[in-house]
Design brief:
This protein has 16 helices and two strands. It is mainly α. Helix 8 (142-168) packs across helix 9. The radius of gyration is 19 Å and the shape is globular.
Length: 293
């Protein structure tokens, strides 16, 4: 069914009759297609499942184009980003094209689904703006971080699972909670992997989030130790030297902040598992948690 989603998205872009847009879209790495997989798990037999899955993946792709411009990212999933190869103006306009095309196709799914997805995109944009502002200085506020990643990442996943439940006639609130917690846990795990993984796996330099000014949960926990705070804050937003990366990693291990961050994601995941009786959805969360270690 994911193949049907890929084919649908490509056909929508091709229907614009713009060879450059089609070429750019074909060059964009597909990624995990997590949102599409969620739709197909929750509403596999609904005739509009592929449409919903394609819409949310097109929106996600658009948001990544804009995100790479904001972050001045040179790589996306290990490949040169569109802004790196074609320039920021092209990347922004391509993102706008995908957003607007997704909204056109979204209209066939009805008012409630359209409103839920549109609200999530608004939250996503607010979260992106908040992320930029928070990157201007070290952020010590854990609740502000969680709210930001809810808006920027979890809101669209929450809308995806809720809308899929609407299609399937399942418990919308329970599936919305599942999606919200999955999205939060997914981002926290991603933030952990930015520290603990390697450049070949990440497709970008290790600890690049911190260099870009993002204060993720492990850094917030580390800086909560009075004896470490000054040095952690001083390294924020810097191009780190090898010895500085080593010090950060060693300090995180000594203070147990990676484990503490993982436990936060695990608690969210367990709550999500309890919210729905679906072994496939449970398995997806177990796989997510296994990524971190």
């Amino acid at each position: 069914m994911i193949e049907a989603v890929e084919a649908t998205m490509l056909s929508w872009v091709q229907s614009l009759n713009d060879p450059r847009a089609t070429s750019l879209f074909a060059q964009m790495p597909a990624g995990k297609r997590l949102r599409a997989k969620l739709v197909m798990m929750i509403a596999p037999r609904h005739p509009h499942a592929v449409t919903l899955a394609s819409v949310v993946e097109l929106i996600h792709a658009a948001s990544l184009l804009h995100d790479d411009v904001i972050d001045e990212a040179q790589l996306r999933r290990g490949k040169p980003s569109v802004n790196a190869t074609q320039g920021s103006k092209t990347a922004i306009m391509m993102g706008d094209i995908l957003y607007s095309k997704a909204y056109k196709e979204l209209a066939v799914l009805g008012v409630e689904i359209t409103q839920r997805v549109a609200h999530a995109v608004t939250q996503l944009s607010l979260g992106e703006m908040r992320d930029v502002v928070m990157g201007e200085a070290f952020n010590s506020d854990e609740s502000a971080y969680i709210e930001m990643i809810y808006q920027k990442t979890a809101s669209l996943i929450e809308a995806t699972t809720a809308c899929a439940a609407l299609l399937a006639g399942k418990d919308v609130d329970a599936h919305a909670l599942y999606g919200k917690n999955l999205g939060l846990a997914f981002q926290i795990i991603d933030d952990i992997l930015d520290i603990t993984s390697d450049e070949a796996t990440l497709g970008k330099p290790v600890m690049s989030d911190f260099r870009e000014g993002k204060t993720t949960l492990p850094y917030i926990y580390l800086a909560s130790q009075p004896s470490l705070r000054e040095r952690v804050v001083a390294l924020h937003g810097k191009a780190l030297q090898e010895q500085e990366r080593t010090w950060l990693m060693t300090s995180m291990q000594e203070q147990g902040v990676i484990t503490k961050s993982y436990d936060y994601a695990k608690a969210l995941s367990l709550e999500a598992i309890e919210s729905v009786e679906d072994e496939a959805l449970h398995g997806l969360l177990h796989t997510l948690l296994a990524r971190a270690f």
